[in-house]
# Entry
Amino acid sequence: MKKLFFVMLSIVLAIIVYKVSTKRNSTNYEVVNRINSRVNEVKKIVNSNSRYNKDIAFFIDMKIPSGKNRFFVYDLKENKIIDKGIVAHGSGSETGVKGKLKFSNAPNSLSTSLGKYCIGNHYNGKFGKAYKLYGLDKTNSNAFIRDIVFHHYFAVPYKEKDGYICNSFGCPMVNKKYFERIARIIDNSESDIIMSIYY
# Structure
């Protein structure tokens, strides 16, 4: 009887491990697939203008829940993700429906704007060091006048968690430890880096 119990337990555990592993691989595939569909757009921009960094770009996938890694540092030469972290979206993007977001380019909307951004110079503001963002598309053309910047905030977690995290006023906002890592990439770049936010 004990032997049968252990055999059944082993089968159940094997099924659970298989399902979790399959789900994780499927999710990773979807994430990579969505990034890949944006990479060519970014490559067209960086290859047509010498002011942009041709080696590195940042991608933010707003389809992924805010408690999970959805800010990706992407190597444009090797075509692979080389770093990832958690990033908050704007409070104005909340719809009240779990997992569904809305986006706006309007001033005072407090929303995230989709599109490609050029990362500008850093400055010291109320959140400490931050980087100005310039929208390159119609969907984010007001980024600069809306004061949409890349910055850190203490309430954004460093490690993934279930559920959702705090919101920003429309800015891509990360944990300080992760911000410092990204800031080193930006500061060491001789050309402007593109950030693409998509859904």
